[in-house]
Amino acid sequence: MDLPNYLRKKRGKLELKKGKKWITWNPYHSKLAAYLLGSGENWPFTRESKVLYLGAAEGNTVNFLSNICIEGRIIAIDISRISMIELVTLAEEKRNIIPFLGDAHFPEKYRNHAGNPDILYQDIAQADQVNIFVRNYKYFKPKYGFLMIKSHSISGKESEVYSETKKILNQNFNVVKVINISKWAKGHNAYYIE
Fold this sequence. Notes:
By secondary structure, the protein is of the alpha/beta class. The chain has one domain (30-193): Rossmann fold (3-Layer(aba) Sandwich), CATH 3.40.50.150. It has six helices and ten strands.
């Protein structure tokens, strides 16, 4: 995939153009950056994209997405009150971020905030993370999805976890592409879904 003109790979790192400067997008702190460096070929994010982000944590990747989707919005869901403090602070600087303290198991609770997202992005380290993703995707019906799987959060051997994950995703979606991002995020795979 040819990267959009606001992204570039340089010396094994990813950089994002912000104004006239290039800033480093660290793949060790962002699995989405790792996905691109790991040869991920699908990039549906545009200036107008509406992203539902499950497991936003303190907002590192959310921050980069807010710079990319500058005319869209990122609805950042997280269950941690501590993480929410950071997200709210970030949202005060970036007008296109909507933080929401909530549990991703219950999409109906943030339906009014999420609206109709174009993209579902999930990075949640829970045993039922695949089911959470499928439930939210079916509920919101976005065009595209990104699922970051942390194998250590699911019982079983890593290879079995990845095999079962792919099986479940293939049963629910037409397009499932897998990128190994363990070089940057140990025990993780990235999945692109349509």
